[in-house]
Amino acid sequence: MRKGVMRPGHVQIRVLDLDEALKHYKDLLGLIETDRDEQGRVYLKAWTEVDKFSVVLREAEEPGMDVMAFKVVDEAALLQLEQDLVAYGLQVEKIPAGELKDCGRRIRFSTPSGHDFELFADKLYTGKWGVTEVNPEAWPRGLQGMKAVRFDHCLLYGPELAATYDIFVNVLGFHLAEQVLDPEGTRIAQFLTVSMKEHDIAFIHHDEPGKFHHASFFLETWEDVLRAADLITMTDTSIDIGPTRHGLTHGKTIYFFDPSGNRNEVFCGGDYTYPDHKPVTWQAEQLGKAIFYHDRQLNERFLTVLT
Known about the structure:
alpha/beta; 2,3-Dihydroxybiphenyl 1,2-Dioxygenase, domain 1; 2 domains; 9-stranded mixed sheet; 6 helices; 17 strands; 19% helix; globular
């Protein structure tokens, strides 16, 4: 049952060198810088996104993800979800409006997987970048690099998948689109969504809590993914895997690293889902095919390099 969460709102990523990170996220990925704040954080968005930002970069001594935030439909939904999280037994931190520039108040909570999440209802609406809302052109001139269309999802690694699932499904209103089960029937990977997308957030079991696997950005076509692969090579960017197809979600994908070692994905396609769809299940013994459908073999780096 839907509880008011609409979609991913933003992700805040730690980087070791802000200038190098900006070259990567702006010149290569094609995000657009929209602001900076007194804390030194830089705000970016993809061109189709209507809110002011979807990515926040913060310079730090260690890479990784600070927090992923989801936008809810309105203040009433935010108040109700806050009460529901507290009733569930979670500690909720209230972050005032303006702590992130042009973003309304947020509530922050931690899941048993060791990750921090936020919910918010308000953010400055700036519209799509470079196109009008009346009689818009197909796309704006001046896009850089891979021309990322939107921030799509994150994949996170940590323990306690069942408890984390309970929060996202029974408190926040997500539903399970895909899963990987081990031979005993225990879920070791879960792909959760509040939309028609196969996943807005995903988790894979890992003993160490709070690990960040990747932030993913949507592209329109397979040709765009192949062009992204060319740009990765042209810029001597560290590549992880691809271009290839996933078995899970069936998205067509390529993975690479920012200068700090945070993994990025750009992808196109993928399946769709509705709440009445039964979850797609992969068996753990088919995990190679589930992750890399063409090679059908696991890349050890993909499973173990985390920030």
